[in-house]
């Protein structure tokens, strides 16, 4: 997959940052006592900025596997530290008080082993805070797969079943982490985002979930794929009484505290 586009991702920054704030609000750590915070999959630094503001005395480190995202984050937050890393193999040199992952772990496989490993990497009493889009069954993502399975795009896109990790669901994550955590909070929320046009919805997902589909296509097939996808999005998200479209965006949250 080609590198991420920070400008495209940040076009809907307010909407993307809202769940990051909601996640952080459930982290019950004394800001004055926190020394080491890690933002896994920090992107352009919008979530890292929340951590810097809350934990003013802590060392805050953002990690990402995209050089473009890291460059944007460094420009935004010169006071924070940013590192290139792969979440699947990442391990801290010093046990963090908080590992925070906003809209990142849905790209990483093997949650059955990943999440317990991250929880165990914390300092005693530390917190693992995770938010992941849970929208695979929403029209935006169902239509991505439907169009990708049709000619003339199917051959170039190939097997798209592994583009994103299949989430375990609230019950699955609770059962996985409850025996390991001193405290565990899991919940699911569907945000409702008014969007001006079908193209705005397409632009939103082009910065994230649609990207691996489009990246596999040559320029001419990209154009036709996006046109057909937008046509179907137009049908799936009808015009509301104010002339806008309402984009439902379910997200799954996990806050787990390591045992002392």
Question: What does the model show?
Answer:
It is a single chain. Helix 9 (198-206) crosses helix 11 (219-236). The protein has 260 residues and is of the alpha/beta class. The mean pLDDT is 93. The longest helix is centred in the last third of the chain and has 18 residues, at 219-236. The chain is built from eleven helices and seven strands. A seven-stranded mixed sheet has the order 3-2-1-4-5-7-6, sandwiched between helices. The chain has helices at residues 6-9, 13-25, 46-54, 67-76, 111-120, 139-148, 154-157, 169-177, 198-206, 211-215, 219-236; strands spanning 36-40, 59-64, 81-84, 98-102, 127-133, 181-195, 245-258.
| Lateral arrangement of strands in the main beta sheet | 3-2-1-4-5-7-6
Shape assignment: globular
Category by helix and strand content: alpha/beta
SSE series: HHEHEHEEHEHHHEHHHE
Q: What is the radius of gyration computed over CA atoms, rounded to a whole number of angstroms?
A: 19 Å
Poorly predicted sequence stretches spanning 5 or more consecutive residues: none
Into which percentage range does the β-strand content fall? Answer: 15-25%
**Major sheet details:** 7 strands, mixed
In whole angstroms, how far apart are the ends?
40 Å
Number of strands: 7
